Amino acid sequence: MTFRTNLFAGAVALATSAIMATTSFADTVKVGFIGSLSSDTGLSTLRGAEIAIEELNAAGGVLGGKTIELVSADTGEDPTEGIKAYEYLAESEEVDFIISGSIDDVSLGWLPRMVEYQIPTLDTWTSYIGIIDNLVTDYDNYKPYFMNIASDEALATLYIDFGKDVLVDQMGWKSVVILQEDTAFGGAIHGLVAEALAPVAGIEVVDTIVYDVATVDFAPIFSNAQASGADFIYLISSVNSQVVSSQYVKLQVPMGMTGVNVAALGQEYWEDTGGAGGGISTLSPVPSVGFALDPVSQAFVDTYQAKYTSRPKFPHFNGFNAYHGLKQAFAAAEEAGGFNNTSWVDAMLGQDLVLKKDGEMWLRYAFWKPGEIEERTQRTYPHNARFDITAPYDDGAPSMVVIQWNEDGSAGVVYPDKFKTQDFGIPSWVKK
Amino acid sequence: MALLEVKNLSAFYGMAQSLHDVSFDVNEGEIVGIIGANGAGKSTLLDSIMGLTKTTGSILLDNEELTVANTAKIVSFGVGYAPERANLFPYMSVEDNLLVGAYTAREAIEQNLELVNTLFPVLKERRNQETSTQSGGERQMVSVGRALMTNPKVLLIDEPTIGLAPKVCNDIADALRKLNKETGLTILITEQNVNFALTLAEKLHVLETGHIRMSGTAEALAKDPKLNEAYFGH
Amino acid sequence: MFQILIQGLLLSGLYALIAVGFTLIFSVGRVLNLAYGVSLMVGGYTFFYTAQVLEMPKLVGVLLAIVVGAVFGLLKYRLLVKPLKGDHVAIEISTLILAVVIQAGIILVFGDATKILHSIIDGVWQFGTVSITANNVAAALGSWVLILGLYAFIKKTHIGRAMQAVSMDQKGAAISGVEPDKVNAATWVISGALGAAAGVFFASYTQLSPSMWVAPLIIAVAIVIVGGIGSIIGTLIVAHIIGFMEIITTTLFAAELRGVFTMILIIAVLVIRPRGLFGREEL
Question: Does A105 lie in the same domain as A188?
Answer without folding.
Answer: no
